[in-house]
Amino acid sequence: MSKGLCLHGSFPSSAEARRPTRDRRSRAAITLEPLPVLHQYYDALFRAHGEQRWWPARTPFEVIVGAILVQNTTWVNAARAIAHLRSAKLLTPAALAKVPVFRLARLIRPSGYFRQKARKLKAFVEFLQQEHRDSLKAMFATPTAELREQLLRVHGIGPETADSILLYAGNHPVFVIDAYTRRILTRHGLSQGKESYEELRGLFEKSLPLDAQLFNEYHALIVHTGKHHCQARAASCSDCALRQFLPTPPEASA
User: Fold this and answer.
1) What are the two backbone dihedrals, phi and then psi, of residue 54, each rounded to the nearest 5 degrees?
2) Can you tell me the distance from the alpha carbon of 229 to that of 31, in angstroms, rounded to the nearest whole number?
3) For the CA atoms of 113, 179, 253, 204, what is the dihedral angle to 10 degrees?
4) Less packed terminus of the chain by CB within 10 Å, N or C?
5) 15-56 pLDDT, tens digit each
6) Which residues is 47 bridged to in the sheet?
7) Rounded to 5°, angle at Cα 37 from 36 and 42
8) 0.90 surpassed by pTM
């Protein structure tokens, strides 16, 4: 985990960072050129909130299970489902491969869409067995781009889930894009909100050092900010660490 990855350097001034929204959207959404100001965003978030210690899991496999179970639900619900699996001693690839799918679905019911997610978990452990002989170590030794393509071919694993697995379970340097990231970028005039997942992932990876530890901490800080300050229905900007970067005065956005 990060111990304060200071990214200060030759970055834009605060005034430049708050340049008119139209100009910033042009740079980010149309050309998707690197945004040096993303370094400053990280520094501000880390100073305000410190190390997040995310992902909350005991093993890499538990991270993978959590990345699937948290789809379309809250982490609280996913954590309840994981607790059920732990109590049933099913948090290993071998155990999940053996458990009947109907029992698995019943155990993960708190996560919602439990029948679909049971099939997704089964699909992953089948993939792990067939492609990597049940070895997470062998799987994560696969080059990042190649493994990402493999994961995206597994039933129920999309880009966000694949990247969460790569980053948080495998320590691969890929940036995870989620709804919180999109919301913050849009409200700060750094994107139009119409960019594809891959465009935004590329934007972060071009703008920052390609470092898994940094990406881990940065994404966790974005999640914290999205939950506590930049909610979907309303934003609480007055006490947000990113208020200084808003394209409009903080008082008008609070």
Assistant:
1) -115, 135
2) 29
3) 170
4) N
5) 344 443 334 333 343 447 899 999 999 999 999 999 999 999
6) none
7) 110
8) no
